[in-house]
Amino acid sequence: MAILLYLAAKGEVKFKTLCKDLKLTPGNAWSHLEKLQREGLIEMKRELPITGSKVSVRLTKKGYERADEILKVISELSNLRYLLSGALEGSEGSEGD
């Protein structure tokens, strides 16, 4: 989920940057990215410059749609939390009634 939201905000990023920003080990990040790629949510592009292989990662259209779904759920949960906190505050004053 964090990787999807990160890529939705950042666009295409280098693998090393993703690991650094999300505080993931390369092995852990690679494992998650492979799963996301199998699900069709991301694309990984390998460049072969003279200095060595570099991988960049970006969301697919399906990945952006999934990130949007996640953001909607987070927003709904935030609204629910707000409503529940208001209901709980209101019920505290009515206990003595």
Automatic annotation (TrEMBL):
InterPro entries: WH-like_DNA-bd_sf (IPR036388), WH_DNA-bd_dom (IPR027395), WH_DNA-bd_sf (IPR036390)
One Pfam family hit: HTH_34
Residue ranges of every copy of the Winged helix DNA-binding domain listed in the record: 2-76
Domain of life: Archaea
Gene3D superfamilies: Winged helix-like DNA-binding domain superfamily/Winged helix DNA-binding domain
Protein name in the entry: Winged helix DNA-binding domain-containing protein
